Amino acid sequence: MNWYNVKLIFQREMRDQLRDRRTLFLIAVLPLLLYPLMGMSFFQMTQFLRKQAAKVLIVGVEQLQGVDGLPKLLEGRRFAASLVDPSKGRDNLQLVWPEDLVKKQELDVDDGNSNERHADLPMSDRTAVVPASSGALVSDGVAATERMTLVEARELVSSGVVQVVLYFPSGFADRLQAARASLLGPKNQHENLQLQVEPIEPQVFFNSANETSQVAQMRVDRVLGRWRNQVTQKNLQDHHIPVGVVQPFRLKGQDVALERQRITAVWSKILPFVLFIWALTGAFYPAVDLCAGEKERGTLETLLACPAQRREIVWGKLLTVMLFSIVTALLNLASMGVTGRFVLSQLQGISGMTDVPLAMPPLITVLWLVVGLIPISAMFSALCLALAAFARSTKEGQYYLMPLVLVMLPLMLLPMAPGVELNLGNSLIPVTGVVLLLRSMIEGQYVMAMRYLLPVGVVALACCLLAIRWAEEQFNRESVLFRESERLDLGRWLVHLVRDRTDTPTAAQALFCLVTILVVQFFISLAISARSSSGLDFQFLVQTLFISQVVCIFLPPALMTLLFLRRRKKSLLLDRLPAGSHMLAAVALAILAHPVGVQLSEWIRQLYPFSAEVSAQVEAFSKAMGQAPHWWIPLLLIAVLPAVCEEIAFRGFILSGLRHLGHKWWAILGTSIAFGAVHLFLQQKISAAAVGILLGILAVQTASLIPCITFHALYNGLSLLTGHLGELLGDGRPHPLLRGIMQADENSVTYKGWFLAICATGIASILWWLLRVPYERSDEEQLQETRENQSKAIPVYPNPSGGDPGVVHR
Amino acid sequence: MIQVNSLTKSYVDLRRGRFVALDGVTFSVGAGEIFGMLGPNGAGKTTALRILSTVLQPTSGSAMVCGFDCVTQPALVRHHIGFMSASTAVYDRMTAWEMVEYFGRLYGIGEEQLRERMETLFDRLQMQEIRDVLGSKMSTGMKQKVSIARAIVHDPPVLIFDEATSGLDIFVSRALLDAVAELRDQGKCILFSTHIMREAERLCDRVAIMHRGRILASGTLDQLRAAQDEPDLEELFFKLVQNSEEGVSCGQGTVGSRQ
Question: What ipTM was assigned to the predicted interfaces of this complex?
Answer without folding.
Answer: 0.89
